[in-house]
Amino acid sequence: MSDAVLAVLIDTLVTRFDTPPGSADAHTSLGETAVDSLALVELGLILEERLGTPVPEGVLHPEQTLREAAQALAALHSSGPAPVSAPPAFS
């Protein structure tokens, strides 16, 4: 699963954050892709949409390699979205 997530992550960096094609691989850190802290938040939001799983702030950080980021995202994806509790009934 993390290889598929890695592919989505790299594709997102290339298509949405102007990372030159071929310049990012599993060993590249997010910081090396010139993604700053604000862009990391945006990246998380885009990945939420693409992966269908919430990406809490702080899951992605500049020191992570893309492989480490993909593994963290895959772990979130495999655990599924948090259950939503029903609203209280009105009487």
Notes on the structure:
This protein is mainly alpha-helical and 91 residues long. It has one domain (2-79): Orthogonal Bundle (Non-ribosomal Peptide Synthetase Peptidyl Carrier Protein, Chain A). The chain is built from 3 helices and no strands. The chain has helices at residues 2-16, 37-51, 66-79. Helix 1 (2-16) crosses helix 2 (37-51) and helix 1 (2-16) packs across helix 3 (66-79). The protein is globular. Mean pLDDT is 86; it is low at 82-88.
Please give the structural blueprint.
Layout: H1 2-16, H2 37-51, H3 66-79
Helix pairs in contact: 1-2, 1-3
Short précis:
By secondary structure, this protein is mostly helical. The protein is built from three helices and no strands.
What is the 3D form?
globular
CATH fold description? Non-ribosomal Peptide Synthetase Peptidyl Carrier Protein, Chain A
CATH superfamily: ACP-like
**Secondary structure category:** mainly alpha
Radius of gyration from the alpha-carbon trace, in angstroms? 15 Å
With helices defined by DSSP (H or I, 4 residues minimum), what is the helix count? 3
Reading off the top of the CATH hierarchy, the class is best stated as Mainly Alpha
Mean pLDDT: 86
Number of strands: 0
